[in-house]
């Protein structure tokens, strides 16, 4: 969600309102257009067909038929409303606004006099309100309502949804807290949402309630039945004592985003130290190359260190989104470019793979290899991911830039127009680029005052060669990879900064302890992770039999006619002849000498896989190594 750190006392960087950054051209503008014209309206129909809206009508007394499960169906409406709100900032649309107003009127009719709003517990089990917090998702749904309400208020100026949210938040505050009921939300998200509701409304009680929910964890206060252990719910140890990420990946990451939000407002050093420890555990032990998170289908959970299977990877789309939310807050706290690098890797890979190129089909899980037969469905019974993808695409401009006392920081190279106020000095800049296909980024100063201010540009950690040109002066800034290069001066309108990042295909090797990828290589190109699909192989060649040569050159080729315009990568490898293994599963090493046939390989961006049918796919290919027989 959009966060406002303008008045957060412990924010090193101040976020810009979404309205201050408009995406214009380049890689992402087309995806925002599809989101606006197709995905959001497709979702409105699906929310009707799937029963989400009728559930709320039942709570309001106007619905027909039976309640449709799961219990958290309301949350899909809220995420869709949040996405629509962001899109109304990007591009006003009377049709979308009318859809949103219709949904909000329905929520207002369903809300109880005491402020309570949850269609399941109003219709199906009213006697169990606040009795099943472990798996009942009441506070989870409330959190998504609060996020939507803040977004809608900022987008439209209307208070209709914000009033509903505040009445519900007041009800929750009257129910839980010191001297009231102790509780642990089984699915975090209400924590970060309460902090943003505090930022929007100024109501201190909401911030304190968020802190209360975080502090209850690890105290044995989970209410209600659950088929899982306390680690699944991040309730095994208190947050400040946690050493590893564990349990349900989305829950863990939403919780950590809320923890970062609370630090931004309170400066609780123990919370920040815990966040840093857990970030290190994620990045050193539990992160897929695609920025996917969550190794196990059981419990949708993290695995042990280095447990990163490819074909059974869970890597839920929502987990990648939650990781971006967490890293955005950590970036605001620390100013450390590694968090912007993480957001970039997530955006172009584990997140973007969650939606088809036509904007109407979605992945819930994102494996790194497939034996075939996998396609993106149009919707899910548990449809948390589709509207989550929609709100993230609509919110892209929010991640581009921040400000500080020094000036303007550019974090993501998305073609856009940026307006900011630097201590009373209003500035406007335009960012032009064909990134990630090309490495040239041009930042043009369009408006500026007379005072000097700083431009900071991120040099991605993956970049081995980078230069910046201002006027006739060219500087090598390769040493700044993984950080920012900064220029402070009195800028003139029309002045430009040209950043050049060398984009070349690279072979990537995994940590030796990752069993699933030992002896294998993957290909990246700038921020993009690539994969191999069976559709690009000659007839009769099985992708499982293919090896990649580690010493042969890689070639990047622009393709206007493929997968919505991409850079494809040509590599060299070989296919093993397995004819001697027919009907044999194991045999002595000395009995068979491997034989290989040379093969040209085509790699495409991972985000685009399964858009040409449900064929086979692999991110990692075994390395042929020395001694491969090329005949």
Identify the overall geometry.
Answer: globular
- Proportion of β residues? 15-25%
The DSSP helix count reads: 14
Model regions low in confidence, pLDDT < 50 over at least 5 residues: 625-631
Estimated radius of gyration: 25 Å
The total beta strand count reads 22
- Overall structural class, as computed from helix and strand content, comes to alpha+beta
Mean pLDDT: 96
The portion of residues assigned to helices is 25-40%
Q: Largest beta sheet, briefly?
A: 10 strands, antiparallel
Describe this structure as you would to a colleague.
The relative contact order is 0.10. Helix 1 packs antiparallel against helix 3 (about 75-90), helix 2 packs across helix 3 (about 75-90) and helix 2 packs across helix 4. Residues about 625-630 have low confidence and may be disordered. The strands form 3 sheets. Strands 3, 14, 15, 16, 17, 18, 19, 20, 21 and 22 form a 10-stranded antiparallel sheet that branches. Strands 2-6-7-8-13-10-11 form a 7-stranded antiparallel sheet. A 5-stranded mixed sheet has the order 1-4-5-9-12. The protein contains 14 helices and 22 strands. It has about 625 residues and is of the alpha+beta class. It is about 35% helix and about 20% strand.
Summarize the structure.
This protein is of the alpha+beta class and 631 residues long. 33% of the residues lie in helices and 18% in strands. The protein contains 14 helices and 22 strands.
